[in-house]
Automatic annotation (TrEMBL):
Keyword Signal: yes
Cross-referenced SUPFAM superfamilies: DPP6 N-terminal domain-like
Keywords for this protein: Signal
Signal peptide stretch: 1-21
Entry annotated with the keyword Electron transport: no
Protein's UniProt name: Uncharacterized protein
Xref: InterPro entries: 6-blade_b-propeller_TolB-like, WD40
Gene3D superfamilies: TolB, C-terminal domain
Similarity comment text for this entry: Belongs to the TolB family.
Source organism superkingdom: Bacteria
Length: 176
């Protein structure tokens, strides 16, 4: 079905300074409607979806085009939250005592991958979008930073080494 106006969601992540010194700076995530009118891009009103003190960052849209995942600092650790663009509801998907970062939807459409940080390690794990189960995809000596899926089995990762990062490709150990 052809539409006269294409509507996209535009995402902004902005750093917000906080008076209290923190290990991670306070950040917020903004969304806005983006449309094309007469060949010109039109940006709708910006809406802060994480208007609170603390770290909210690393957003990623889910393929359902109705929600986005992001990392949120809750107390002393980080969890993965889902924001529903239609209902404006926020749901904590990981809700764990460990730190999770960089939520990235996987090609199977039912899971997302995260950097799972515990005991000085940073591993790659898969979590179900319904929040019920999680499983390791890559665990080893490498400290994984950011990641992006090449296909349903290969993942491109930054590996933290010394004062820098190296780009590597891993075959996930247990992909669906």
């Amino acid at each position: 079905m052809k539409k006269a106006i294409m509507l996209f969601t535009l995402l902004f992540s902005a750093v917000v300074t906080t008076a209290k010194a923190q290990s991670v700076p306070g950040t917020d995530i903004f969304v806005a409607d983006l449309s094309v009118q007469n060949g010109q891009l039109k940006l709708g009103e910006l809406k802060n979806i994480t208007s609170r003190k603390g770290y909210d960052n690393q957003p990623y849209f889910v393929d359902d085009n109705q929600s986005l995942l992001y990392t949120s600092e809750i107390g002393e650790q980080t969890d993965i939250l889902r924001y529903n663009l239609k209902t404006q509801e926020i749901e904590n998907l990981s809700n764990s005592p460990e730190n999770e970062y960089s939520p990235t939807p996987m090609e199977n459409g039912t899971e997302y991958s995260v950097i799972y940080a515990v005991d000085g390690k940073q591993e790659l794990w898969a979590y179900q979008l319904n929040g019920e189960q999680r499983r390791p995809l890559y665990s080893g000596e490498a400290l994984i930073g950011y990641h992006a899926w090449v296909d349903d089995k290969q993942v491109l990762v930054t590996v933290l080494e010394g004062k820098g990062m190296n780009l590597q490709t891993f075959e996930s150990e247990k992909s669906n």
